[in-house]
Each structure stands twice: as structure tokens, then as C-alpha cells.
Design a protein that fits this description.
The chain contains 17 helices and 27 strands. By secondary structure, it is an alpha/beta fold. Strand 7 and strand 8 form a beta hairpin. The longest helix has 22 residues. The radius of gyration is 26 Å and the shape is globular. The structure holds fructose -6-phosphate (F6R). The site of fructose -6-phosphate has 14 residues, from helix 8 and helix 15.
């Protein structure tokens, strides 16, 4: 979702602003703009659509200046248009905002009654207009600005990360954070404020993650942060992202690169967390000697939710513990009965998903003594910082909007988590633990084999021409895989697809089946194979084309299947890890054949920081 950048530089800043906006394209956006300060004047340039449009406009007539702010907007209030794009201006101030100002209607009415004119339909525009009202027309210094800034921010309800720049009076970026991510950066060429560290790759050497409620300013010589009216110190840390790790490395798309990175990610996870039969999660040492809780609640969104659904099968089977899994947007509003002796496990690639974060806060405020653990790919994220323990996913930066390697990293870490708890709680023998760990080690080679089958999957794309939808079926831990396969296909190819528990097919979706509804069947030896094959025959009998993903021996594969994608033989933990790869390839190649924007599919955002 919206990406924010602010720069106070030692030289010209236009190119740094554009670089940072490009690195935030992955977050999802539909318009972009920058505002640069030069000799006491603020000049904005904004365009609807892709950043390319803004770049073209700036190439024709660049903006000179050594301080500026920029923004990629994901529309919430008002259509994607030049007028609604950020930055927004007040008298002598420019502002970029990520989040939602929930009381914007009442603030707008008040400002209009005071004679203030609005140029956009956005909720965000109230911020610069309030700020300039607070400042008045005069050119006050930093002290007065600090008061006006505080006063403005105090009037805002909702969520925000805001960066403001003044035309005159100081050389600062003014910032405030509540509910939306924001960090500061510093490097040889300047100081920065940005939505994520990736934006500052190649610019900053150090970053400082702001906390909710932080407000302040940064200049080349000073940084001041206040919380509840008192000045606070926050830690600078070395930049977690290098320029190199954020490129496409010769692949056509980030998603393709990230699919191919999966064996390396799994190897990194195993190397980091497994020594012999010992599984250690350094940042969640509170799990060592853990006593099994009465209940485990897992909360996440989208693809991360699908990983949690798979883990439920493992947790129930091996730990015999009661497990509840929910999407965060429902969990946080349904008055869940939490009770004592319950663990919460949240899962998130970004660690900034608004609903997941609120679910964690709800859980902790209701039962502060219960353990809240997160499996997260960004250890510096809000979710990681607010949880009692974090298990980093070690997937590296994921740029493609459609999650791939973070998903398989979640599955791998969840499998290790189950094995660790099962072994430590003595519900799994050492021999069984070793056997499962040996199977996990086979995943790296098995994934390499599957990556070698990319062409075979690509050859299936004609089966998705002229269709009215696609169905994905699986049972047991392969059911969430079916959900994930369908989600991947719909989000990047824009085809309608549904994932279903194969046994549920008769209760509705079977009515859709005809020759224009390809059905992807996930049939694993470990998970109710014969029952899945019966479902496959029912689908065939109604004329659907069937693509079978299976680890069955060749001779057992049913006749007349339109395509078979062989999976390495897995154990109960590893089959989902294998099956993920052809499903990702399928979505990727179908999307490519349809010419969609694979890495930045329409309407989607990588980091969903508003609910
Ligand atoms: C789909 C996808 C999304 C995310 C969801 C949660 O490919 O990436 O469904 O999984 O928005 O995001 P995180 O995991 O960052 O909390």
C-alpha cells in the first residue's frame, strides 16, 4: 500500500526520491508524485498510473532542490487521479500520508467553514490544510512548527504514517506514526523517512524504526523524537537490505526469481534452526522447554492464512492440541473467547498487515500472560516488535506482490515448530523426529527437481484459454494448498479460481463443472489418496480437463488425465512444500500468457497497512 519517502539531501534529491519510489512499487499503487523544495518554494509533480508516467514528466522538466517528499498512492478515498495523488499542499507545507484519517469528514467540514479550499477527494488532504492553519501565514521557526505539528497530529483519528516538508523556516522532515509503518534513515548523501527499508537500499547506511505514537523531525544535523510529549531515544541499526538483494538477478519478474530462490530459503532455514535433532529458534528461546498449551490460535491473512491452515493438520495430528485458525479481519471483530493457557501464533510476510497486528493487540490486551509468537519475514516489523517472540522466516526480501518464497518459508518453519514442540513435549520419539527432519532435508533437492519442470508447467497454459474459471481440489494438508493455488492464479492472472476441500465439491461447486472449467487436483499418497482419486473421476465424468499434481507411481496414475505434474514422494510435512512450486509456476505462466502485470497485479498491495 501507499509508499512514503522523504529526503533532506546534501545535493539534488529528485533522483533519490524516484529511486525510493521505484523500490516501493511492489507495495502496490495507482498514482505517484513528488514535491521538491527550492529557494523557499514547494513544487509538486504528480501523475495517475504507473511511476513511468511520473518519470516521463520529470524527464521533460526536472525538479531541482535539496529536500523533497514522494509518495506512491493506493487509492482508498477518491479515484486514482492526478488531483488525488500525494503530496498534498497547504500554505507553505507539503504532506504525504499512508493510512486512513477516520475523522476526515468532520475535519474537512470545519476547515471548509473556516474558508479553506480543498483540491482533492482524499482523507489525507486535511493534514496539510490543518497544519497550515495551525501555523498561520507567518514564517515561524522550528519551535512553533513543532507545536503546530503536534497540534495537527493530535486532531487526527485513524492510522497514519505522515511526512511533511515546509517551504521555509527549517531543513527538516516532520514525521508522525500511528498504525502505519515508518522508519528513518541516514547515509552519506542525506537523511530519509520511508515506509520500508527496501525504499532506502543504496541510500541509507543506518535505519531507525519508529514506534507507534512517535512524532518528531529529522534534519542533516539532528533527529528529535517525542512520545506522549516527552523526548525519547530510539536505536539506529545497520541497514538490513542491500541494493544487490533487491534486484531481479536476470529473471523476467521478481515472482519468478523468488520461486527459484525457494530451495535456498529452505536450506537457510534448516541450517539456521536445525542441529542434529535439536531445533532452536534463537529469537524465540521462550519456546525452549515449552509446556504444551491447552489451545493454539493462529491468525493471519491471505497466503499466510493458508500456511496456518496447513499447520493446523500437523499440530492436531502430532501434538493433539486444539487449534483454531482464523483470518485476522474476522478474528479481531468477533469477540473471540481466548481463555488462559492459549498461545497465539501470527504469520506474516511483511509484519505490517493491519488486521493481523490488531488481532495480536486484541489477544495481548485480553490475556497479557498468554504467549504470542509470530512467524515473520521482517524481524524489525511492528508485528515482530509487539509479539513475545519472533521466528524469522529467513526468506530474504520478497518483492513480487504474490507471495511465494515467504509462503514455503512459513510452511518449513511451521513444520520445524511442530517437530520441536512434539519432541520436547515427548509426544514424538527421537527416531520419528529424525525421520521427519531427514525428509525436510530432502526438500531442497526435491524443489530443485521441480524447478526443472518449469517448461512442463508452462506448456499447460493453453488449458486456461477460454475458460470460465478454475477449480483446485485437495484433502487434508493439501486442501489449504488448493486454496493457495486458486489465490495465486486469481491474483496475478485475473481469472476466477476457487480452492475447495475435495470432499466438499459435491455440495455446490460440482454444478460449475464442464469442459471450460479446468480442475487442478492435488493427490498425495499421504493424504486420503483413494478418496481424492474418486473426486477426480467425478470431475472427469462431467467433462472437465484435469491437471493432476501427485507423488503416485506412474503405473497408478488414473487414465485420461489431461496433464500430470509429478511431485517427489513426500512425508506428511514435505508434500505441501513440494506442491507449492508447480502451483506457483502455473499461476505465473498463465498470468504471463495473459499479459498481466505479474509483479504488481492490479488493485493489490504487498503490505496491507490499512484494514
Ligand atoms: C497473496 C499474498 C497476500 C498476503 C496477505 C498477508 O499472494 O501475498 O494474500 O499473504 O496480504 O500479508 P502478510 O503475510 O504480509 O501479512
Amino acid at each position: 500500500m501507499c509508499g512514503i519517502i522523504g529526503v533532506v539531501g546534501r545535493g539534488e534529491v529528485q533522483s533519490s526520491l524516484l529511486d525510493a519510489l521505484k523500490r516501493m512499487e511492489y507495495r502496490g499503487y495507482d498514482s505517484a508524485g513528488i514535491c521538491v523544495r527550492n529557494s523557499g518554494f514547494l513544487t509538486c509533480r504528480k501523475e495517475a498510473g504507473k511511476l513511468f508516467n511520473l518519470e516521463q514528466s520529470l524527464a521533460k522538466s526536472p525538479l531541482a532542490g535539496s529536500a523533497g517528499i514522494g509518495h506512491t498512492r493506493w487509492a482508498t478515498h477518491g479515484i486514482p487521479s492526478r488531483e488525488n495523488a500525494h503530496p498534498h499542499l497547504g500554505a507553505g507545507v507539503a504532506v504525504v500520508h499512508n493510512g486512513i484519517i477516520e475523522n476526515h469528514e468532520s475535519l474537512r467540514k470545519k476547515l471548509i467553514a473556516d474558508g479553506v479550499n480543498f483540491q482533492s477527494e482524499t482523507d489525507s488532504e486535511v493534514i496539510p490544510l490543518l497544519l497550515s492553519t495551525e501555523l498561520g501565514a507567518a514564517e515561524f521557526g522550528t519551535v512553533e512548527m513543532a507545536e503546530a505539528w503536534q497540534c495537527t497530529v493530535e486532531q487526527l483519528e485513524g492510522t497514519y504514517a505522515i511526512v511533511a516538508l515546509r517551504a521555509k523556516g527549517d531543513d527538516c522532515l516532520w514525521f508522525a506514526r500511528r498504525g502505519s509503518p515508518l522508519l528513518l534513515g541516514r547515509g552519506a548523501a542525506g537523511v530519509y523517512a520511508a515506509s520500508d527499508a527496501l525504499a532506502l537500499a543504496g541510500l541509507a547506511d543506518e535505519v531507525l524504526y519508529l514506534e507507534d505514537g512517535d512524532i518528531g523531525c529529522i534534519s542533516l544535523s539532528n533527529v528529535e523524537i517525542h512520545q506522549h510529549g516527552a523526548q525519547v531515544e530510539r536505536c539506529w541499526q545497520s541497514m538490513p537490505v542491500s541494493e544487490q538483494s533487491s534486484g531481479k538477478a536476470g529473471f523476467d519478474h521478481f515472482m519468478q526469481k523468488e520461486i527459484f530462490e525457494q530451495p535456498r530459503v529452505i536450506a537457510d532455514i534448516l541450517n539456521a534452526y536445525v542441529q542434529g535433532v535439536d531445533i532452536t529458534f534463537p529469537e524465540a528461546s521462550l519456546l525452549d522447554d515449552a509446556v504444551l498449551p491447552n489451545r493454539i490460535v493462529m491468525v493471519a491473512c491471505g497466503t499466510s492464512y493458508h500456511a496456518a491452515l496447513t499447520a493446523r493438520y500437523w499440530l492436531e495430528r502430532y501434538l493433539q492440541v486444539s487449534v483454531e485458525v482464523d483470518v485476522a479481519s474476522e478474528y479481531r471483530y468477533r469477540n473471540p473467547v481466548i481463555g488462559p493457557d492459549t498461545w497465539l501464533i501470527t504469520l506474516s510476510q511483511s509484519g505490517e498487515t493491519a488486521d493481523t497486528l490488531e488481532a495480536l493487540r486484541l489477544f495481548k490486551s485480553n490475556t497479557p500472560d498468554n504467549l504470542a509468537l509470530t512467524l515473520c519475514n521482517v524481524p524489525e516489523s511492528s508485528l515482530a516488535r509487539e509479539s513475545d517472540g519472533t521466528i524469522p522466516l529467513l526468506a530474504g526480501v520478497e518483492v513480487g506482490v504474490a507471495s511465494t518464497k515467504a509462503y514455503t518459508a512459513q510452511l518449513a518453519v511451521l513444520a520445524l515448530l511442530v517437530l520441536k514442540i512434539a519432541y520436547e513435549c515427548r509426544v514424538m520419539s527421537e527416531a520419528d523426529t529424525k525421520r521427519h527432519l531427514a525428509a525436510m532435508r530432502q526438500v531442497v533437492d526435491g524443489m530443485h527437481v521441480l524447478l526443472g519442470h518449469a517448461d512442463q508447467v508452462q506448456a499447460l497454459t493453453p488449458l486456461f484459454d477460454d475458460i470460465h474459471g478454475a477449480l483446485f481440489l485437495g484433502r487434508g494438508p493439501c486442501f489449504p494448498l488448493a486454496l493457495e493455488g486458486a489465490l495465486k492464479l486469481k491474483e496475478i492472472s485475473y481469472l476466477h479460481a476457487e480452492g475447495y476441500a475435495a470432499g466438499e465439491m459435491k455440495h455446490g461447486p460440482i454444478a460449475l463443472i464442464d469442459s471450460r472449467l479446468p480442475v487442478v487436483v492435488l493427490a498425495a499418497r499421504k493424504y486420503h489418496l483413494q478418496k481424492v482419486l474418486s473426486n477426480l473421476r467425478e470431475v472427469q465424468a462431467r467433462g472437465a480437463k484435469v491437471i493432476l499434481l501427485t507423488d503416485m507411481a506412474d503405473q497408478d496414475i488414473p487414465d485420461n488425465v489431461d496433464a500430470v505434474i509429478p511431485l517427489p514422494e513426500g512425508d506428511s510435512f514435505t508434500t505441501p512444500l513440494f506442491a507449492a512450486i508447480p502451483l506457483q509456476f502455473l499461476a505465473y505462466y498463465v498470468a504471463r500468457s495473459r499479459g498481466t502485470d505479474v509483479d504488481q497485479p492490479r488493485n493489490l498491495a504487498k503490505s496491507v497497512t490499512v484494514e
